[in-house]
Here is the input.
Amino acid sequence: MKRLTNQTEREAAQREIAALLAARGEWVCSEAGRLRSAPTTVRAVEWEVRLSAGGVHFSFWSDVGLRVWRVAAWEWTGERLVIEATRRAGAERAMLELVPRSSIQAGLAVLRAARGEACERLARLACDAPPPGALKIVRARLSAGARRSEPGRYARISLRRGRGLIAVTGPVVDLGKQEADAVVSSALLWWSRLQQRAGKERVTELWLLVPHELREGVRQRLALLREEVLRDLRLYEIDEEWRTLTLVPLPKLNELLTAQPRSPAAPRDELSEAARRIVALAPAEIDAVRARHGETLRYHGLPFARVRRVAEQEHVWFGTGKGTERRLLDKRSWPQLAKLLDELIAHRRADTPDARHALYRALPEAWLESLLRRDITRLDPGLVVSPLHAQFRLARAARGAGSRPVDLLALRRDGRLVVIELKVSEDVALALQAADYWRRIEAHRRHGHIARARLFGDAGMTDEPPLVYLAAPGLRFHRAFQTLASCITPEIEMYRFDINEDWRTGVRVLRRTRVSEDVDGLV
Here is the structure.
């Protein structure tokens, strides 16, 4: 690989990489060594190779926003562009592989073979479970991919035991702990299909095989399911070498709710002077998410400025990118901030002339959340939203099952909490994800954290578990939503809100239904 050790090499790399990318209209970017089912598509207008004092920076838009990498070394093999890259001052490293869209089929064949081999290994591992010789592999294949030509992320294995069958599934890709909802949802959906089409051979059990990183998250999600579903389900942890399986005991939901969660830190009540000045530039569009050490300012949900207190002084960084893409705000850079706001005003609005612009497309769920945060009565006239909802981060679960903020936390007029989860695109894991939010908020409620934080001022709360509102455009609820919602314990009261497709022009509720009153999936 060509390493960038001096300015001449950096200048040459910037020119040559930019020329390679420009020569082909569309690329697919993935991280080498980490098997992903949905690499990022990088189009001509969505990338930039820039030379700066800090080196060569390659940036592109992805589903999670702008990604910025510093190029340490690179190589063009004739088929793919390989970039050794770093982020966050070297704290994060990756080997990026960019393949022209026309060469994708060859890459998919390699990916399919690697995942197929992992599937076979999982099948042999499950077949060796005690007692020896009791199980036989009937079939081992991959799940369907996100797209027709892509290999799936999960193994689908059938084992024979006597006259019955055991369904076995587990990931064959590197998944983080945040993927627990997707892992369990995929397994339940497959299990439902097996139950519906089972003929003479009865499928008696469902085994989930997961690595250590997913163990705790999956274990907690399973506690949210109905007893009828859990009855035939087993969870196994795979050791690091993929040589042994360990049966994992499943907790009762009440055990998770009575465990003491970490008390969230209370953010500041008042905005900083710097934040107030920026919000005043477009008060109808800009909101502030407060934290202990400052604020994040968002334009229709898109973060564009951050205020931090360092040594008792306020400092502002602005930019819609990350890391080196942000600039420190001072007298000289105010014009650049004004220019950024002009671009946001021009492109991040409901009647934009260019719906493909990156500023319009970025973080759509945050945009929807910001609209409802300003006027939650559009969803339900009886709600009051917490002004500090975005700061009330859900405490980390035991052994690192992750922490994350709930979309919206509201209070009904009768004093009952409402957990609100928003989607603008199909997400098969919506029901389980919302149930997990409910679990975390209910644990905080039981331990008095929400009352002590005074998230709703002097308003009183009833001693009842929260409700769950799931809101999305009507055509954006996944077709398997009802099947998976039927697996959730009836202790969680869920409501589905179908909103208008053109929600950016104003949110309107088209239909509201209670999910638990129409369950006919697995149970």
